[in-house]
Amino acid sequence: MAQKLIKRIVKLVVNSPNESSKISETFALLYDTDPNLSQSLIYSIENLIYEKNDIAAAKLLFLHTTSTLASKDSKQCLDFVYSCDPLAIGQDSLKLVFELHYKEEHYLASLLILDGVSQEHWVNERRTEIADLIKDKDLSKVDIIYQNLANLLLLKRSKISGQGPPNVKKTKFFSSLLQTPIVAWEYRNQLGRMIRRDLDVKYQKSILGWAWGIIEPLALTVTFLFLFDILSTTTSRYMPLNIMIGIIIWSGFGHILLRGTKSLESNTVVLQRVNLPRQIFLLNIAGTSIVTVSLNILAIIPLLIYYQITPTWKLILFPASLILVAAYGVSVSLFTSTIQTKWRDVSHLVSVAVRIGFYFTPVFFTLEMLINGRIPPEFLTAYLIINPIAIYLTLARSAFTNESIDIGQEYFWISLLHLILLYTFSAYWFSKNEDKAVKYL
Amino acid sequence: MRAGKFPIVLDDVVLDFPFHNAGKTTIQKQFLSLFKGNNKKWFRALSGIDLKIKKGSVVGIIGDNGAGKSTLLRVIGGIYKPDRGKITVEGKVILLASLGLGFSNDLPGRDNIYLTGGLIGMSEDEIADKEQEIIDFSGLKEFIDAPLRTYSSGMRARLGFSIACHSKPEILLLDEVFSVGDYEFRRKSKQKILQMVEGETTVVVVSHNIQTLEEICDRIIYIENGKILMSTSKKYAIELYKRK
Asked: Which pick of A159, A438, B84, B135 has the fewest CB atoms within 10 Å?
């Protein structure tokens, strides 16, 4: 409908420019069908100027558009004038624009337009009138405006733009909590692909490839066994197994923390180009860690055979505790990754924390050894509340060794509560600050 | 084409950036700045952008370095949220910058098609369908199986452009993509853009290559200091830009 009307108008303007009433009538019709008519007409006007070389028709079309819009939508009218080709602007339409600016109290713009219009008697009167009006207004703006006008006859807009109210981001508490799991589900295919890429790339160009994932924990296990043999008199039965499980899981956890903290920083290129949920890189890292740990844990099979352990239903505790550990890593990283973009100190801090944590968490010893050690019980309680990883690790070990530990079950629920509170805080923090964090990249 | 349909509308958009002085801030300076009061920490990258872009048009953005062209593109692409003002973008947006979309350097080009395709929202089947088409258009031939780090910047741009085009975007944002490509690539991509525009894709191009803009754009937006100096027909804007 609107297209047809525009064609009709252009035809009218080109063929019978004197039938002014007919043209205005069609314009009124057109505005009713298409309130955004100015943009469509800009193209028609340019077409008239550059393709058909009919500037008179373009000027007429411009004048009629301006007069229609001036009465209907003054903002659009000014928009139209300043985005249309200046060749189409004629004396009559300039007067119209002047009246509009004047009506809207854009005195400077009015003044400048008057300069563009030829010297008629009303021009001089109006000029003094406006000059009086702007006398006590901010004159530094005049310079800016004249600068902008250096090349243009007209000023784009007299209003000082960019003074709107700041956008305040409303972060909904509950939806911020659901954000990360939703992203993980929606992007599961892509995440799978990214994890596969990470694994492919990790051992590219290496001869031993996958074996490296096992060599490191194996070497560390041997080292710690050796140390225990020298330093300690009592070792538990499953010591090598326990150390190996501890080291494999801790290295996965450390990996999530270290790389997760840098997850926004190291993906700057992608984040500045693709509009993605920003958690995706963190989830990618966590996923890669979970897969790596699950594969590396296969290295304990020879030990299981050696100890003649037959897996029971308790084996399910291993994936469960692995997921809890990963969730803990993700929760911390959601918080640290956003700060990392502003202060690069965070990653250093995290790497120190991971190292210290290695010694303070029962990684190369067991929780049992800690409990039976020389720690006062009240400190032990505090320790278990602060460090849920200790509990998750012990859980993972008991999946294989079937050994039960004599700490109360309530500590498990406390560690879970710790995790939930941490996640709640981090997830809320992340969705509140992610937009700002991206700017620091 | 329905008249008066604007997939991109910006209303008085303002974007502030933090001042980067990486490596130069010391604790001492940070501490002192607490007492010196609020010294300027933000600068205005975009100040009050009003813009309406019509469906199926090709709009060029010109301006000096640092005028805010790429930032504007990123705001349209949804990467930065405006600090003031409002923006509405309807349809699937793809932003393509000169160095590709987010490629993995160690993987061959073919794997990168899948990776990047997934990142910009194509499904696995969709990519498998288009794979050959993408490779043919990029003109990479046997290099498609070479790791990406061996590619030249032009080759990257070709692959990136090829993936972006074949993902059927409704809005395509191109940031200096043509500057690294050779003549043949420019010719081909120009054709492709015009072909996409017929299919109602809206294209916004940032480029210093006036000639390219002159050939493909309907309108030109001239940006200076984060403001739209003008948005007008291409002949006039380009004339002005050259004269400057």
From this structure: A159
Instruction: Determine the distance from the C-alpha atom of residue A225 to the mean position of all C-alpha atoms in its chain, rounded to a whole number.
Output: 46
B124, A189: Cβ pair inside 8 Å?
yes
Cross-chain residue pair B101–A273, CB shorter than 8 Å: yes
Chain A hits for B78, Cβ within 8 Å: 275
pLDDT, tens digit, 9 for 90 and up, residues A13-56: 778 777 777 788 887 778 877 777 777 777 788 778 777 778 88
Q: What is the ipTM of this complex?
A: 0.84
CB distance from A3 to chain B under 8 Å? yes
Contacts of B83 in chain A (CB under 8 A): 166-167
Q: Which residue of chain B comes nearest to A160, CA vs CA?
A: B48
The CATH number corresponding to B8-243 among 3.40.50.300, 3.20.20.140, 3.20.20.70, 1.40.20.10 equals 3.40.50.300
Residues of chain A with CATH 1.25.40: 2-149
Nearest to A201 among B17, B106, B240 (CB): B106
A36 vs B4: CB contact, 8 Å cut-off? yes
Instruction: Give B93 to chain A, closest Cα distance, Å.
Output: 8
CATH number 2.30.30 given to A2-149: no
- More confident: A1 or A62: A62
What pTM did the predictor assign?
0.74
Mutation for A interface: B174, B214, B233, most A CBs within 10 A: B233
Break chain B into its structural domains and give their ranges. 8-243
